[in-house]
Amino acid sequence: MILVTGGAGFIGSNFVLGWLATQTESVLNLDKLTYAGNLNNLASIQGDQRHIFVHADINDSAKLDQLFAEHQPRAVVHFAAESHVDRSIHGPSAFIETNVNGTFKLLEATRAYWQNLDEARKASFRFLHVSTDEVYGSLEKDDPPFSETTPYAPNSPYSASKAASDHLVRAYHHTYGLPTLTTNCSNNYGPYHFPEKLIPLVITNARAGKDLPIYGDGSQVRDWLYVADHCAAIRQVLEAGRPGETYNIGGWNEKTNLNVVHTICDLLDELQAKSSGSYRDQIKHVKDRPGHDKRYAIDARKIERELGWKPVETFETGLRKTVQWYLENDAWTSQVLSGEYKNWVALQYQQA
Ligand code: NAD
Ligand code: DAU
């Protein structure tokens, strides 16, 4: 069994679904169900005995100790976090509480469990920490992409909290020998993406006839990766990554925000045309994000070279799939927008 934290969020739920579709091993899914946790994401595995859902906080040390003792996982895959940069600007406290303190509590509980395992299980155990390219700061136009040796320079409370958690994970390997793995990934997109983030927000607003807000001039660059490719990379790192190492994950898909929004509008024009005009007419330039990082780009050669991972989707194929998913899953979006998704009770899953 593996323990997954944050498995009801965007990437975590895609990971749990992908795991159960490709592996036989069970998943213990621990999630606090903040605004970003949505059990509807896991509806398709309801009744699958290999999925056990636990409604809990990674800051709850007693619960973590109980779960480790009871389920004896052979690995932890740690997604749970506050993930939205804009929220971190308006209220950083939850980011420190979960991303820094929560990761520390999880590391402590893992260490206590791990150090009492027999030698064989101790050696094969893995703690995989899912992190972000934002810890490296911002690139200028002609800078080379972030590699695993790029110095950390986080600029937002979100990225600073993730950088702190990365350093804690590094220290637990260096000091205690905990077999950790850290992945630093670029911007994900795909199904079950909460519509506060650029791509799902634009798809949702466009269809609702609302403004499509572009911060500043829209020239900022992000490096986009389809979420299923990220999940496959994490499985590969868990399987074959070297303890103590970090792996950058990215799709070599640098796009300006304006370009991303234009492409979404063009796809919607093709797949669900308006009675008149283009979705591009709804674009509105708004006040820029404070401290807005200019450009992120990932050099993914290490994971390609050492672990043989490569993304399957290009930005064009992945974005088309994503827009199609939102067109076919109105119920998911409307439950998120109305807040109804919060009425789902965890009791519908086998619970620990
Ligand atoms: P998300 O916000 O969609 O999901 C986070 C999940 O964690 C939610 O289900 C939430 O309920 C849960 N959670 C939050 N606080 C918790 C706590 N204290 N205890 C237990 N569960 C808690 O985030 P996401 O976009 O799926 O990101 C997942 C991870 O991947 C994060 O660590 C993030 O930093 C990292 N990451 C995200 C991206 C991206 O583009 N979204 C890219 C690279 C890395
Ligand atoms: O790079 C990885 C990171 O990508 C992850 O670590 C974060 O968890 C994830 O949220 C994401 O961060 P970003 O800030 O890059 O994503 P977001 O979707 O919020 O914004 C993408 C770009 O679009 C960014 O330059 C800000 C801009 N933007 C965003 C929103 C929500 C807009 O122009 N308008 C908007 O309304």
TrEMBL record:
Residues 3-322 form the NAD(P)-binding domain. InterPro entries: dTDP_Gluc_deHydtase, NAD(P)-bd_dom, NAD(P)-bd_dom_sf. Its cofactor is NAD(+). GO terms for molecular function: dTDP-glucose 4,6-dehydratase activity. Its EC number is 4.2.1.46. Keywords: Lyase, NAD. It comes from the Bacteria. It catalyses: dTDP-alpha-D-glucose = dTDP-4-dehydro-6-deoxy-alpha-D-glucose + H2O. Belongs to the NAD(P)-dependent epimerase/dehydratase family. dTDP-glucose dehydratase subfamily. PANTHER family: DTDP-D-GLUCOSE 4,6-DEHYDRATASE-RELATED. This is dTDP-glucose 4,6-dehydratase. It comes from Undibacterium cyanobacteriorum.
